[in-house]
Design brief:
The protein has 179 residues and is an alpha+beta fold. It has one domain: Endonuclease, Chain A (2-Layer Sandwich), CATH 3.30.870.10. 30% of the residues lie in helices and 34% in strands. It is built from 6 helices and 11 strands. A 9-stranded mixed β-sheet has the order 1-4-10-9-8-5-6-7-11, sandwiched between helices. A two-stranded antiparallel sheet has the order 2-3. α1 packs parallel to α2. The N and C termini lie far apart (37 Å).
Length: 179
Amino acid sequence: MKNRYLLIVSIVVAFTLSAPHQAPRAADFTLDKTPVQVCFSPNGGCTKAIVNEISNAQSEIYIQAYSFTSAPIAKALVEAHKRGVKVEAILDKSNVTGNYSSATFLKNAGIPTFIDSQHSIAHNKIIIIDKETVITGSFNFTRAAEEKNAENLLILKSKELAGQYLTNWEKHREHSEKY
């Protein structure tokens, strides 16, 4: 528990939104009084924090993942889908050939699942919930990330930030293929 903190911070976020064959575009803005939950692994409760946010989703969840093998996160997404929350996933192409990917589990549960093979590595690790919550960081959605790796996770509550991430998610969805 001591590795998890709920912070209210003012931060300046600068990140790049890019589409194929376009120069990167910066989307700079200031987030004021934005609640942020910070988690660190190993064993810092990152998976539990993600599952909690997914369990509280009301309308929609969009996920982008490089490596996705976490059973608790996959199960939480399926449960959200069963209770009527719109869930869609974009995964890196390594999830197609990986032995333990959650891609098939999501697809078999009726969750639209897409593969982003346009990039060498689709290395995003994000979840956007209800157009207000952004979950991001180095944390892969895997058991190893929770139990063995040194990772970080941020959960930010900002409609403006969520809008930027959703726009980027949609750009990746456009060139991804149905799994």
